[in-house]
């Protein structure tokens, strides 16, 4: 053996452990399991106008590589779905009993148990290490399953439309996210925040343990930047902010009229509002680009878009435009990404202004 061959073989052996130990960074994942900076999923309702009942599991998908909605070939309950691919990272980490990752699952309607009205009207999942991670905000009650059960989708989530937004963040963004969650006061049903995270994410640890939380004000706004340098604004209101978040805060802060889509139970819905400088109009009917229409009453998602095309704001969150929601904590994440705005604005088929239907 020549000296060159010997040293090449030695260097190869030294490199093998690094190759074997390397794992892809924690991030939102597309349906191919590839990392993406963000994605949005819009699960279509089971019952649509002038159509026979569907599966209630079909969904539209949008990410930085999409210019408009794509209808997924997978169903939302499949592990091959974008949400399934993303959460699989958490489930694998749980099974391997790693202590170098942290996660938190919260939902006012947990997978098995009662519906909580005392804590935040919020639903989401965080999963991260000390490099980066994701925050997935969604509208699906009783989701996702506990880590020991693996990925699944609740049968109760089929009937109505649902939304989810996943954003990949570097580690330095998670202390800000933890502060926003203090205002949420979420109903945490499963979490793990190992010791290595306690110094930077002490607020997350307090929420996880259900210990006494620091005093907070009525609301908090923060800027977040994704791993891919996409800018977001995050609005978080506590139960001390007793008002409609759409009208009293988001529209006035963004200085734009909003078209708001949210689930509005009968006799609890708030009418379109023009009492302040920037108005909020209720979306009443939605048209997907895949030739289906559905009414707001069949949609459990919560989102809003600028009425005027020039403003291009789009927000996804936790709270409905309903009377009881004024007393609940929750929030919205907002973007001025042109493709996100156009995708959601195109869904508005008609809305109710303060003077009539358009």
From TrEMBL:
Q: Which reaction does it catalyse?
A: Endonucleolytic cleavage to nucleoside 3'-phosphates and 3'-phosphooligonucleotide end-products
Its EC number is 3.1.22.1
One GO biological process term is: apoptotic DNA fragmentation
Q: Which residues form the signal peptide?
A: 1-21
Q: Which UniProt keywords apply?
A: Hydrolase, Signal
Instruction: Note whether Hydrolase occurs among the keywords.
Output: yes
The family line of this record is: Belongs to the DNase II family.
Q: What is this protein called?
A: deoxyribonuclease II
Q: What species is this protein from?
A: Geotrypetes seraphini
